[in-house]
Amino acid sequence: MLKLETMQVQKGDFHLSGSLQIAAGTRVAVIGPSGAGKSTLLEAIAGFQPLQSGRILWNGDDLAGKPPGARPGAMLFQDGNLFPHLTVRQNVRLGIDANRRLSAQEDAQVSQALKRVGLGEMADRKPAALSGGQQSRAALARVLVQGCALLLLDEPFAALGPALKAEMLDLVADIATDCGATLLMVSHDPQDARRIAEQVILVAEAVVSPPAPTAMLLDNPPPALRAYLGSDAGD
Amino acid sequence: MALRAQPVTLRPVATWPGTCAALGVALLVLGTLTAVALRAEGPAGLGPADWSALRFTLLQASLSALFSIGLAVPVARAMARRRFFGRRVLITLLGAPFILPVIVAILGLLAVFGRSGWVSDLLALFGFAPVQIYGLHGVVIAHVFFNLPLATRLILQGWQEIPAERFRLTAQLNAGPRAMWRLLEAPMLRQVLPGATAVVFAICLSSFAVALTLGGGPKSTTLELAIYQAFHFDFDLGRAAMLSGVQLGLTVIAALLALRVPPGDGFGGGLDRAVSRWDGRGIGSRLLDSLWISLAALFLILPLLAVLVAGVPGLMSLPSSVWSATWVSLQVAALSTTLLLLIALPLSASIALGRKALGEVAGILGLAASPLVIGTGLFVLVYPIADPFALALPVTAVVNMVMALPFALRILIPRVRQVMQQNSRLALALDMRGTAFWWQVLLPRCRAQIGFAAGLTAALSLGDLGVIALFADPEVATLPLQVYRLMGAYRMEAAQGAALLLFILSMAAFWLLDRGGRFHAEA
């Protein structure tokens, strides 16, 4: 279970606060206007943003002071999820351990993850030789071997076309289900939330609201969400 | 960026190795300086010869800066507004003097401007007396040869940094040459020229090899040359130390001035970018530009050509002393380049991670440190415990490394910073740190810059004729020193052959390392 206790984050002039609780294995979309603090929320959980006060707990464990690499789960950013000078396989290997050579057994695990995302044939290509969708798949393969108890997605598919994005979201949902991951996914698009998220967190006006069931929230949006979604809200 | 918020924990590599590297360099420069200062507490003040050396140093540096900059402005202007066949080659050529061994250029300049050189021959046809190259003229000509290209690149960069929109606007306003000058060129030059002048002045202050070969005599001795003479001929350590102190004062002042230059790289990144220009279409300005470009190209190419032409006969029958000197030079350059990478890489990582003070310290020390001052200091330090002459080669390698350090940092830091910014977050998320980050991310991603910096250092070290002249006994020589000795013995054919060999080696070392870094490198 992921728990935010009166979390306060200060990032330059920007301030973000909120409390919430997410049950293990839940798929949650984080939506809200740009600049409201969606990415900051994920960065705080992943350990890239220090807390000013409050606590972030994972299964009762306080994450304060833990560097990003020592926190549970994996994060995918908007871009730069792969090292461009390493092959896909080398990139995925880093998910198991970035600081040592891998055993044969671990290498088999890498091959399996690559196969799982449909990149078995392209393991020895560099990211530049892959399409946008294939690059996303490679990053997801790494997430698979990283151990995906907590999966944080900061709009990694924003640059993909609608069909490809839907495909990736389905793959993410499959992966999350397979390993019982708790998923937090930033999105601009309420359709993304409807597609794979059971719950939605609204981040608006520098406040993180607790999660609410997706359909309920999107069908009856509160004023802040209504303003963001525009006139066709509640479709 | 998110990474700045928590700088203490969010670093993929530690900053202490860089701090140690900076401390080591500071200790070397300041330690030798202290050794010199303690030694200089002799009774004597500056004698008449010393004052004359100080005056000559300032005079030749001022004249060299004045001529280099004065000539560079029209050349840069012509290159900025003309597209012509060979422009890229010429821009590359403008970078060549930087890694060209001084002694090679001197031989080339002698062949062109010397008493029996090409220009004198030409003048003799019309009944004029030959040109006089030894003394102030020669020193200034050589300095202009080395610094005109640098000044041209710095000023050309100023021209290239004028936004394309401004040129469009002036074209729309139908601005003539005078208006162009007032609206665009004069304001840009006001910003660029003081810095460029200070850089050239600072470089010429520390001139040793040029003064050693073309100067000399009581009237044209620079401070660095005077240090060498006090050492080599009189073995007067106290006087050498005192002169070193004066030299250091000068270079520190000049370095502080030069450091106020906006940090353009001066190595020509983006200098061949095409900007659409609509001005300067008149026949007069076209002729003028062609004239300047041709003159500058001739001034650069002729001496190099002379080295090739004069060197070939001697190359076939080089004395064995040249081959042993070549082997020595290669060892010194290899050691110097290795040391440089061991110092510059951790240092640039620390600077890229926000330890800015380290960069400034290293920059000032690198620019202000004079090879002969460090050499004198090391000599003073080593003298009581060991035979300094036995340490000539390692000392030369270390001094060459310090000299190359500021340039290497300028090449490495921007790239290291970029790689850190692009990859730190992902590396931290994967818990990749320390050596793993160095080997898997930083080194492969900076390969091109590492190759460039290594190539530059190897070429500089191969061509350096400085501290080795101070330390070497008659049995040992680097290749540049051997060329100088052959010249001194009037064995010109052998000297020219060896100079051609040195030229080829320096260019090859630079080319191999630079190319090696970029070979199969991804963008």
Describe this structure in words.
The complex is a heterodimer of chains A (235) and B (523). Chain A is of the alpha/beta class and 235 residues long. Chain A has a domain at 80-147. Helix content of chain A is 35%, strand content 24%. Chain A is globular, with a radius of gyration of 18 Å. Chain B is mainly α and 523 residues long. Chain B has a single domain (15-40, 51-266, 276-307, 316-518), classed as MetI-like fold (Orthogonal Bundle), CATH 1.10.3720. Helices cover 75% and strands 0% of the residues of chain B. Chain B contains 21 helices and no strands. In chain B, helix 11 packs antiparallel against helix 15. The longest helix of chain B is centred in the last third of the chain and has 38 residues, at 392-429. The two termini of chain B are 23 Å apart. The model of chain B is unreliable at 1-8 and 263-269 (pLDDT under 50). The A-B interface holds A 11, 43, 46-50, 67-70, 74-75, 77, 80-81, 83-86, 94-95, 98-100, 126, 128, 146 and B 2-3, 5-6, 9-10, 422-423, 425-436, 440-441, 444-445, 522-523.
